[in-house]
## 1
Amino acid sequence: MQGHSYFYHNQYTEKHVHIQAYEMRAKKWVEATLLQRRDQSWDVFFDELSVSEFKSIFKDNPTYDDDFLGAFLFNVHDVEEGKKKFEEWIREILSAHREQEKIDLTSLFRLSNNREQKRSPLRVAVQNKKEQEEKGFEQLFPRLQFSETQNELKAK
């Protein structure tokens, strides 16, 4: 990771460029900001990551995260190189990460569906609530019974 002094505002000119790349996974255009440094190179920043994505993607290679510009991705010699590297980063890092995240969530969903349904905490809570409501109804109206199939009350 670059030192924080690398990112001081006096290290940059006033020039900046916005570039876009199409993210196939999300089926949308994403944007990065390039800031020109005093040495005429360009720093590329990306600000379209959730907190969890940022932590997951940069866990092995910490990076600077600017409150306004987003995550520092890399430094390039010119804007054209920035466009190419940003498109590669979107394809090889971001889209691959989001695809893996989707696979992990799908696996988790399958795992939870393969468990016995009656052991699901949500299912147990709903069943308990339903039983409590039925007991409350029976205590209030001991001689009446509600038929869910016919949607009416009947005497016992």
## 2
Amino acid sequence: MNKRFILLTLSVSFCLYWFSNLYLWYPWSYDPRLGITLMLTLSPLIWIIGIIYILQRKSNLPLLKSAILISIVFVVISVLSDLFFFGIIRDSLHELLKPTTYYGYLYILILPIIVSFIGKSKLQQNKSATNKSIFFPFVFGCLFISILFILIK
């Protein structure tokens, strides 16, 4: 397996998760239905951009296997980050036990596979090296989580 590809996937997943939480925080705290609506409409577009960003990088894996790896990493990072954010930081683990949470996990599990099928020809043609900017998404993820902590407190 390509370690750089896995690091990039972890880094982008971390960044996307915390960016999503950051831009959903105010709408969700104002009205949960507004937050859910944004989560189900705007969030997929942001995750799709991240998926395309990752799939355009070189990997030793075929495209479908890369998409499956991305799916697994996205779900694991999301579950762990949700447990951290809602369980430890906000002490409101009960907020995770809602159908929308599980729909979100299912959605980010299948989304990379759907993107890989839809964009198969383009994604296989335009591969670039993964050694560029592996840690930029991680740095942005740290920035997003820091801003979110400041806003919460």
## 3
Amino acid sequence: MLLCAVGVKPAEAQRVVSVPVTLRVAPVLRVEEATSPEETARTAAYVEYRTLVRVSANLGYELRVSAAPEVAGPVLVRGAGGAFEASAPGTWVSVLRRARPCGGCAVEVVCRLPASAVRPAAVPLRFQLVGR
């Protein structure tokens, strides 16, 4: 009844019509929090720490990590490929590449500091999210 009222014949109402639609969504890339570093291994050369980073993103993203400026000596960060990579302040290591959105996901970040370094009270890293 309504179809006839707007000029569409009942026979034509059975056709599927495609209409292009453009949606605009404001991207959200946010590091919500990072837990206190937890010691997971110790050798004569280094101490390994792990921290969980909670991420919110409504698009695919890459999580990058860099050593904090106050860290003395090299920091090794486990990269996306599983190998440890050297990081200095301003040098970013890709820790995770994710193609899909993630709301409130926890990402494990593992780093190694020289054994002579003082145990950090906070994570000695800076985090960066880049949209993909």
## 4
Amino acid sequence: MFQKVLVPCFFLITLLNASSLFAQSSQTGGYFALGYSNSGQSVGVQSKETGEQGDLNTENYDRSSSGLFVKYSSRPNLFSNGGFGYNYILNYSQVNVTGQIVTGGGADSSSDTQEVLNLGTSAKGKGVFIIPTLFYLWGDSSLSNYFMIGFGLGIGSFAADGDLYLTENTQSSNPDCYTQKRALSIEGIKTYCEKKAFDYSGLGKASLAFSINIDKKWDHALLGLSVKGINASDDENNYTFGDIAVNLGLAF
């Protein structure tokens, strides 16, 4: 109940403040960036069927995905003559994951490893983030050449569809699946673990999101590292979306 009230209020406050700062885009320092991105992405689905948090949890993951990135940043606003300040970042990400993380390594859990297996599962989607960000900035007074490290908590929205095997935390609910996934047996997982299709149409639904950004800007050139994540849910499942990306592009 608390989250249902908090998220819409936070969404409204964020949009009002962001629209004011995005309106300053014609001023020095605000930019729109387009370029090349190399990222690691994840889509996680957790079934609510058992009623237990963490039961039947899986994560679909592709260690490297290349493509275009789109980013908009409002003008950095400094609190004083120091380097601390804030801005708003609007970011769009596409999702395309084809490998699945499975935790196993035999009967002894002390030898656990996480392996990315090709189980024939995949997920595609997209995500949008509006994040107010607190940062520390090193750079010139014109804000055309700077290095920035920032952390933000804001709103995000994403949609994804695909299928995956529910392989994690199944020791009590599906012991045969648990045995096969610990052995990292692809055929065993396909035989004994539940394969779940999902279609989450969450674009337009505000969820809490976070981001970490490290940016270096030289006039119209931008090099950055970003980490973003969203948690969301519907009547059937809990969902997570994560993105770790290295971006290189032009800022206008």
